[in-house]
Amino acid sequence: MSKKRKPGASVPRTSNSKYQPSAPSNTMTYVLGGVAILVIAGLVIGGIWWSGRGKGETDQAALASSSTMIVGPETAPLIDVFEDPMCPVCKVFEQQSGPAITKAVTEGKLRVRYHTLHFLDSRSATGDYSSRAAGALACVADEQNTDLFLRFHSALFAAQPPEDGTGNITSPELARMATEQGATPATATCITDNAKVAQAKETAQKSTDELSKATGGQVGTPTVLHDGEPVDGVLEGNAWLDSILGGGNS
């Protein structure tokens, strides 16, 4: 595991407050605010896969190629953000830290690689919402417009359907949402046609593999990596971000 740190950055360690599915037992654990909720018989409430592998070096080239979108200058401190569009804890993370991340990116103080996972597909009415939302983000990312991507990313989590097997947003509705944020008609067609869904699933798997390396097989959302290592406290305010920025995000 790389031990490199950005100057002035003091990065804490892994947090447990995230979505956690366990593939070997089909038992999903959802830990939020220190309260553990055990859900049996394949109900997906959270997001960690236990692969049994030890920690290894993350591949920065693989992290870059598996990201949905990279925003911010190359010279700024770099983080990787892993989320699932259906993950309610990710919505909390976006509400809490999204504005601060956007501000830091806009001011040229932060570089972010966004990774969109899709393990919560089954929690939507159609069984594929996470993948379609990931594909929609990929369509928007093709415009290479940072402000547009960040607006649409935030809008997706604001409109997140309930995670109870009944909630859903159709692809045309996703396209309309993107258009409302300033996306072009071509991007709206890309989303309506689900043109990037297959690609999004492939990059999600690559992102999952790299996250597994960084965490010793524990893959959860939301997770933030800095210099390839997990950051702690991402659901406890924005001190984690201030630490990475050296206190320069106030």
From TrEMBL:
- Compositional bias of kind Polar residues: 12-22
List the InterPro entries hit by this protein, alphabetically: Thioredoxin-like_fold (IPR012336), Thioredoxin-like_sf (IPR036249)
The Thioredoxin-like fold domain, residue ranges: 67-234
Provide the leader sequence positions. none
Which UniProt keywords are listed? Membrane, Transmembrane, Transmembrane helix
Origin, by domain of life? Bacteria
* Spans through the membrane: 28-50
Is Membrane one of the keywords? yes
- Which Gene3D superfamilies does this chain map to? Glutaredoxin
Region annotation (Disordered) ranges: 1-22, 204-228
**What is the protein named?**
Thioredoxin-like fold domain-containing protein
Q: State the organism named in the record.
A: Gordonia terrae NBRC 100016
